[in-house]
Write a structure and sequence with these properties.
The complex is a heterodimer. Chain A is α+β, with helices and mostly antiparallel strands. Among the domains of chain A are: 38-136 and 193-279, Alpha-Beta Complex (Aldehyde Oxidoreductase, domain 3), CATH 3.90.1170.50; 471-602, Aldehyde Oxidoreductase, domain 4, CATH 3.30.365. Helices cover 23% and strands 26% of the residues of chain A. Chain A contains 16 helices and 32 strands. In chain A, the strands form 8 sheets. In chain A, strands 4-8-2-15-12-13-14 form a 7-stranded mixed beta sheet, sandwiched between helices. In chain A, helix 14 crosses helix 15 (728-745). The radius of gyration of chain A is 27 Å and the shape is globular. Residues 1-7 and 778-784 of chain A have low confidence and may be disordered. By secondary structure, chain B is an alpha+beta fold. Chain B is built from 11 helices and 14 strands. In chain B, the strands form 4 sheets. In chain B, strands 4-5-10-6-7 form a 5-stranded antiparallel beta sheet. Chain B has a 4-stranded antiparallel beta sheet with strand order 11-12-13-14. In chain B, a hairpin with a 2-residue loop joins strand 4 and strand 5 (63-67). Chain B is globular. The chains are: A alpha+beta, B alpha+beta. Chains A and B meet through helix 16 of A and helix 4, strand 11 and helix 11 of B.
């Protein structure tokens, strides 16, 4: 498959608010879609990476001579060969391009090679001899806080600490409940592994075709490491086979570019499934200590939450993740008093970073378990207790931020509680594959008990803490061979979530054209910001709508100028004509004797950093979600069948209702995975299950039908009133399944994923000697500036 | 890399003798994972997936002979009366894997997690091996000699497995944390042999190789004898005895902790699966007896 494809994706069809078929749906279903791993160009070399087997070690010596002597090997590089900047990072450049004197996690890249074939490159990588002196490793997040712990980072072991004081943290309550929670390390497990192709250019620069979530952030990190100006490092989006946060960080980008420039040949790198587990960040494992107080009538009074997140060896986006986990720590409830202390530490575990839900998932596991405990302590129905305390427009959050936008939390919860319950036969009369244990034939319905659990959660849309993650869009309207064509160019990344479909709907809505061409996302247009934080529908959608609106103004101006007569009434587009009031003043096709074009940048409203007391206005807008899980547990075997997930999401406005439904279902599946199956198991800092044989994703027999609904209360200032929809279901699904399992078994279950051992009582609830200590760090500000 | 594709068993055995380095491949369920993860780089493959001799199912009286190249999908379709084997075949992988994967592959890999192996052990099956010069037949326990170790000689191919059909209920159950496409944390096959008045139990994934539970078997056969259940299928077996049977089966397990599960859970699961399997077997023969009487 050649690198340079047709100019763009052409689509016809639906407008905003109508379910539209995915523009990439048919090629993906037919296996014709070109993913990054399919990239190919004549004469290309293949790259491979040598990774550290040790979580902490000093590199005494690297010997590449045996590798260079192998057939087909063109080049080997170590840290000594790096031409310019030696570090990169999303928020802060702390991650070595290739490890220099020490390695800080098992899997860290130490050397790279390029060879004529992928097989030769792998053989060369295996032939590189690295002499390590193994050092003591910090592989436990609480151990990282001990005074005598080895220092993982030059900056110490505290990546960020936050303290949020709200109201009177000493306020008394009638009833207190206390809990300790653990969340395991989930992997994004995108089916498309890390891949890209770097092609050296005649101008001394490089063109990189790559699977990513944010081209311009990559460009900013790659260029300094190559010693090139950004203008000479051109990034082009290659087909992304899923992201979920795992494509926010640089993976093979710099390595392939270095090898391409060094050899003067195109270099392709694709990670295999095993290497992929080492090639991207994971969800932060967390420990959370919570104490929640309420009045006897169920009114929440006070909450004290301490959170500890394991950031692994490098910073990635950890600063923003701990901000989210901390700011959402008490859940979507009015909490007049609170003290929230969040810490993210460096360890010698694999780096943690962005994953769908971004800190809110871990927080939700804890705050929802606390709400259920409180409901039990007060003798109030769990849904009713939540209902009495939900946030609404005008509520004050623990940071002091007032919710100014829409916040239909109450309607979300009520709709969720009213979703139809599953109607099915008693266990003994059902097809046995629908029983806990599925295809394993472990039961005939004996000892199966049903449980129901609810979870409510919320999250920010777009980047926070003063970050201006703007998006640029260019729109051109012109005559095509079969009529008027609109061409859109942004750097916004489609990761499989359906952005291209939504952008095409927006163009059709705004310009009344049918044919929309979307150019490949690249760095030849301004930054779009990241396809993450549930932001791209709002941000890229806003930019495209604004550019369309400007093009329409140009069109109206041209029509008005040419019509000669004074115009009465508002101008509008209909059926390929421009109307002033009820009068047609021109045919669009005639008006486009020369194309019309506009470029616009969309910005969300300003936010601020938190001050020393954790006060400020860090978030742009909020989206709420609720989920009800119905589960069946085989009480003897501790096996589970989730019978139904019912999700309701606050979406502002569903631009593509079918796409929203897909996001709710996919997000629910990912949350179910964390509740029951998905965990990267670490043994002394090393991943023990880097394969899909042992990192278990839900199958169709694990994933139940999802019933869903949306609440549409427009967000003021957002295009069409839309909110992001990518994360809502993931945030609540894990907590809802855990709640249902508690309901079925009567056990505490304070760790996810919940293991069969936990469900049958072989292992009891996880215990803690008490909250992790507060680190002694200079000042309340982030250790690093969050750009 | 060489790839041999013989069209007859004789040709395959000649290649096998001349090229012992050539790794036999049929469904490739285990082998291709090893290759794809770079753990194995065979110099040569010997494709045995097209050999008609290995794709036969033969039945003569009570004897069943299952060609080593018969995929699980066919076992499910064509041997429904071998209930436990058909159930075990259904627990294997996904539909795609069941269409390609073979019982011969389970034997060749010799993993204690091979889903069909506890069934072959409970069936007292024999493994038929052939070289270009000789045929030999080994009892399953003489073939599966250790974790992923078998008695296969470098010039031999596994051609079939055979057993005498036991009259009586039997079942296979597999525990995994995922509801499908999962490697067993524990697997159990129970087979009643009405003629010999015996109960056979075999365990997978809870020891270095497939295990039988002789003490539990003797105990169960004795209890059925005590309550007169061998001659009267309607006779009740006390629950405490069934529970004791579970404990004895569990005691026969030799499990370890690994990424898939803990040893303690595996031992617990063996007891649960054993009590359930014996309960189902007794229920099924009681139901059959009532049906026969009505």
């Amino acid at each position: 498959m050649p690198v340079v494809e047709r100019a763009g994706t052409v689509t016809r069809g639906a407008v905003v608010g109508v379910s539209a078929p995915r523009v990439d749906g048919t090629p993906k279903a037919l296996g014709e879609f070109a993913y990054a791993s399919d990239l190919w160009v004549e004469g290309m070399l293949f790259g491979a990476t040598v990774r550290s087997p040790h979580p902490s070690a000093r590199i005494r010596h690297v010997d590449v001579s045996a590798a260079l002597a192998l057939p087909g090997v063109r080049r080997a590089m170590t840290a000594a060969d790096l031409p310019a900047s030696r570090r990169y990072g999303l928020d802060f450049p702390d991650q070595p391009v290739l490890a220099e004197d020490v390695v800080r996690y098992a899997g860290e890249p130490v050397a790279i090679v390029a060879a004529d074939s992928a097989e030769q490159a792998r053989a060369a990588a295996a032939a590189i001899r690295v002499d390590y002196e193994v050092l003591p490793a910090v592989t436990d997040m609480e151990a990282a806080l001990r005074a005598d712990a080895p220092q993982v980072s030059e900056h110490g072991n505290v990546l960020r600490h936050l303290r949020i004081e709200h109201g009177d943290p000493g306020a008394e309550a009638d009833v207190w409940v206390e809990g300790y929670y653990e969340i395991g390390m989930q992997d994004q497990a995108p089916l498309g592994p890390e891949a890209g192709l770097a092609i050296p250019a005649p101008d001394g620069g490089v063109d990189l075709y790559v699977s990513t979530q944010w081209l311009h952030s990559d460009q900013k990190q790659v260029a300094p490491c190559l010693g090139l100006p950004e203008s000479k490092v051109r990034l082009h989006l290659a087909g992304v086979g899923g992201a979920f946060g795992a494509r926010e960080d640089v993976h093979m980008h710099i390595h392939a570019c270095l090898l391409a420039i060094a050899t003067g040949r195109p270099v392709k790198m694709t990670y295999g499934r095993e290497e992929s587990f080492f090639g991207h960040v994971h969800r932060h494992p967390a420990r959370i200590w919570a104490r929640t107080g309420a009045r006897r009538d169920g009114t929440l009074v006070n909450s004290r939450v301490r959170l500890l997140l394991d950031g692994g060896a490098y910073s990635s986006s950890s600063q923003a993740v701990i901000l989210n986990a901390s700011t959402f720590a008490v859940g979507p409830y009015e909490m007049p008093n609170a003290l929230i202390e969040g810490t993210c530490v460096y360890t010698n575990n694999p780096p943690a970073g962005a994953m769908r839900g971004f800190g809110a998932v871990q927080a939700c596991v804890a705050h929802e378990a606390q709400m259920d405990r409180l409901a039990a302590a007060l003798g109030i129905d769990p849904v009713e207790l939540r209902r009495r305390n939900l946030l609404h427009t005008g509520s004050v959050l623990p940071t002091g931020q007032v919710i100014e936008g829409s916040a239909p939390a109450r309607e979300v919860l009520d709709r969720c509680a009213a979703l139809p319950m599953p109607a099915d036969l008693p266990p003994a009369f059902r097809d046995r594959v629908t029983l806990p244990g599925g295809a394993g034939n472990v039961g005939r319905g004996e000892r199966v008990r049903r449980g129901v659990g609810y979870a409510m959660g919320y999250k920010n849309i777009a980047y926070s803490e003063g970050f201006d993650d703007s998006c640029e869009a260019k729109v051109r309207l012109e005559r095509g061979p079969k009529g008027v064509v609109a061409t859109v160019h942004t750097a916004a990344v489609e990761v499989g979530q359906g952005l291209q479909t939504v952008l095409a709907q927006i163009v059709r809505t705004e310009l009344g054209v049918d044919e929309v061409v979307q150019q490949r996302a690249d760095t030849q247009v301004g930054s779009a910001g990241s396809t993450s934080a549930s932001r791209q529908t709002v941000m890229a959608g806003g930019a495209v709508a604004a550019a369309c609106s400007r093009v329409r103004e140009h069109l109206f101006a041209r029509a008005a100028a040419r019509s000669g007569a004074p115009l009465r009434g508002p101008l509008r587009l209909e059926d390929g004509r421009v109307f002033a009031g009820e009068r047609s003043i021109g045919v669009v096709d005639d008006l486009l004797d020369t194309p019309l074009e506009a470029t616009e940048v969309y910005r969300h409203r300003r936010t601020t950093r938190l001050d020393g007391h954790g006060q400020g206005e860090p978030h742009v807008m909020f989206a709420f979600g609720a989920m009800r899980a119905v589960v069946e547990v085989d009480l003897d075997l501790g096996l589970v069948r989730v019978v139904q997930l019912g999700g309701v999401q606050d979406v502002g406005k569903a631009l593509n209702p079918r796409g929203v439904e897909g996001q709710i279902e996919g997000g629910a599946a990912q949350g179910l995975g964390l509740a029951l199956l998905e965990e990267i198991q670490l043994r002394d800092g090393k991943i023990a299950n880097a394969s899909f044989t042992d990192y278990l994703l839900p199958t169709i027999l694990d994933m139940p039908p999802v019933v869903s609904a949306v609440v549409e209360e427009p967000e003021p200032g957002s295009p069409y009133g839309a909110k992001g929809v990518g994360e809502g279901a993931t945030i609540v699904a894990t907590a809802a399944v855990a709640a249902a399992l508690r309901n079925a078994t009567g056990r505490e279950l304070n760790r996810v994923p919940v293991a069969p051992d936990d469900l049958v009582g072989i292992s009891g609830p996880r215990t803690s000697a008490g909250p992790a200590p507060i680190p002694d760090v200079p000042g309340p500000r982030p250790v690093f500036e969050y750009r | 890399m060489q790839f041999f594709r013989p069209s007859s068993l004789r040709e395959a055995l000649e290649i096998r003798a001349a090229h012992p380095e050539a790794v036999p491949i049929a469904g490739g369920t285990d082998l291709m994972v090893e290759v794809n993860f770079g753990r194995r780089r065979p110099e040569a493959f010997l494709d045995i997936s097209r050999l008609p001799e290995l794709r036969e199912i033969r039945r003569e009286g009570p004897n069943v002979r299952l060609g080593s190249g018969v995929p699980y999908a066919r076992v499910i379709r064509e041997l429904p009366d071998q209930v436990a084997l058909a159930q075990a075949s259904r627990t294997v992988g996904s539909p795609q894997i069941r269409t390609r994967g073979t019982v011969g592959g389970n034997l060749g890999t010799g993993s204690p997690a091979g889903d069909a192996l506890p069934v072959l052990a409970a069936y007292d099956a024999r493994v038929v091996l052939r070289s270009s010069t000789a045929t030999r037949t080994l009892a399953w326990r003489d073939f599966l000699v250790g974790p992923k170790r078998t008695a296969l000689a470098p010039d031999e191919l596994i051609v079939a497995t055979e057993w005498e059909r036991a009259v009586g209920p039997g079942s296979f159950s597999k525990v995994g944390t995922r509801n499908a496409m999962v490697i067993a944390i524990a697997g159990l096959c129970l087979q009643l042999d009405e003629a010999a008045r015996g109960v056979r139990v075999a365990l997978g994934s809870v020891g270095p190789t497939i295990l039988r539970a002789p003490e539990a078997e003797t105990f169960a056969a004795g209890i059925l004898d005590e309550v007169g259940a061998w001659s009267d299928r309607g006779a009740r077996v006390p629950e405490e005895a069934i529970a004791r049977f579970g404990e004895l089966v569990s005691a026969a397990a030799r499990p370890i902790d690994d990424v898939r599960g803990t040893g303690a859970y595996r031992r617990h699961a063996c007891a649960v699966l054993a009590t359930r399997a014996l309960t189902w077997a007794l229920d099924d023969r009681r139901a059959a007896a009532m049906e026969a009487a009505s």
